[in-house]
Design goal:
heterodimer; A: mainly alpha; B: four-stranded mixed sheet; 2 helices; 4 strands
């Protein structure tokens, strides 16, 4: 019960911020390419840079333990690319689709449905064979450096630090410094109509990420914010019974938090596309998100937002291919004149 | 705002980023001084379309709320070529 309450609180906060900040990685990546606009990308990168220092600090004082995702090169390349294409088709990434469910976008309802259902099928159902094809490539290691940051005697996904055999802090500080340099040292696209500045977006995301990782950890789930596992948990408990887990409650909280935020801002509306075929597009997009996230071992939130700040190599690979898949599909659908 | 609108695009209900892409395509096809009216119901596009229009050298005349989560954006096409 504690897990559900903590997950719900995390989700409510997260949903509120996602809706107010319009935080969609699909937009962030695509705007970079299509509109030469880095506003959202800066907000997300700032959050990642702070988390990169905050997560090991939290682990060092025992609030959490780091748990980088496993590394699986072919699965993360293929899954990442599929997920990246899926966000464009679905009109939103995992977090974008989820918060827009609460905003009343009916196209996102369809996308969230096929996303959750497909992720469940790949993880535990009829499509599990796809995951099995790749399972032999999974790499996990026993940390040889900075072992105090991890759960004792537990294998983890390789990180930049474990691969280079360098203290986690040294790599984290260098990586974070590069991100800070990008964030503050380069020009940012202005968006005067936006309710939140990109700095406020970055900092508020960091607060939710810290609370989320800690509350999830004390509930027995050794990971921070994520979305895919949450939808899987919701669909699984709906079809098979049983309680939802922390992540399921978090996803539920995101939808409710975004709904409340949209109502307050006067931005809730049942949005229906003029052409019915748009539903088919977002349905396929959602299925791509589900398959891609299951293969890449997480969605944009789990990998970009919780994995890369832990220096997980798998998350870095998935993150790169999210962007490439996104750019490819954005080019295919909108980039050509 | 009461102005003579040259072209209207109704982007209500469209999936992200269709409103932004359509708006960009519309202003590229228009002549300096003409007025583009964009109807949107998607909050992110309401913020992003004006920002992109300004960046492309056009003038945002107004962003009016026309209903619950519905907006009317009026853009005057600038003289500068949009790259």
């Amino acid at each position: 019960m504690e897990a559900i309450i903590l997950g719900l609180i995390t989700g409510l906060l997260f949903g509120f911020i996602l809706q107010r900040g319009r935080i969609c990685f699909n937009s962030a990546f695509r705007d970079l390419y299509l509109m030469k606009d880095n506003f959202l990308f800066k907000g997300i990168t700032l959050a990642m840079a702070i988390e990169m220092l905050m997560f090991p600090a939290m682990a060092a004082v025992g609030m959490i333990k780091l748990n980088p995702k496993p590394f699986n090169l072919p699965a993360q390349i293929i899954g990442g690319f599929i997920f990246g294409m899926g966000m464009v088709l679905a009109g939103g990434c995992a977090s974008g689709t989820t918060y827009r469910v609460g905003e009343g976008n009916t196209t996102s309802w369809v996308a969230a449905f096929t996303y959750g259902l497909t992720a469940l099928a790949v993880k535990h159902g009829g499509l599990h064979w796809i995951l099995k094809l790749f399972s032999k490539f999974t790499v996990k290691v026993t940390p040889t450096v900075s072992a105090n940051l991890y759960e004792p005697s537990k294998k983890i996904g390789p990180t930049l630090a474990t691969a280079l055999h360098i203290n986690h802090w040294i790599v984290a500080v260098i990586f974070a410094a590069l991100l800070f340099w990008y964030v503050f040292g380069t020009k940012t696209t202005e968006r005067p109509e936006s309710k939140m500045t990109w700095k406020v977006i970055g900092i508020s995301l960091t607060i939710v990420a810290a609370f989320g990782f800690w509350s999830s950890y004390i509930s027995g789930r050794h990971y921070g914010l994520g979305i895919t596992g949450g939808w899987v948990s919701l669909f699984s408990s709906y079809t098979k019974g049983g309680l939802i887990n922390w992540e399921g409650a978090e996803v539920l909280g995101i939808v409710i938090g975004a709904f409340i935020s949209a109502i307050i801002a006067g931005e809730f509306k049942f949005r229906v596309p003029k052409k019915g075929i748009t539903y088919l597009q977002t349905a396929i997009g959602g299925a791509f998100l589900g398959l891609g996230a299951a293969l890449a071992m997480g969605c944009n939130i789990g990998n970009y937002f919780t994995g890369i700040p832990q220096l997980a190599i798998g998350s870095i690979v998935a993150g790169i291919f999210f962007i490439l898949g996104n750019w490819f599909m954005a080019w295919l659908m909108y980039g050509r004149s | 705002m009461d102005v003579k609108v040259t072209k209207t695009i109704d982007e209500r209900g469209e999936v992200c980023p269709v409103p932004d892409v359509d708006a960009k395509r519309a202003w590229k096809s228009m002549k300096p001084g003409e007025i583009l009216e964009v109807l949107v119901d998607y909050p992110l596009s309401k913020e992003r379309i004006p920002a992109n229009a300004e960046k492309a050298g056009h003038k945002v005349l107004a962003i009016e709320e026309t209903g619950p989560s519905e907006w009317r954006i009026l853009i005057q096409i600038g003289g500068k070529e949009d790259k």
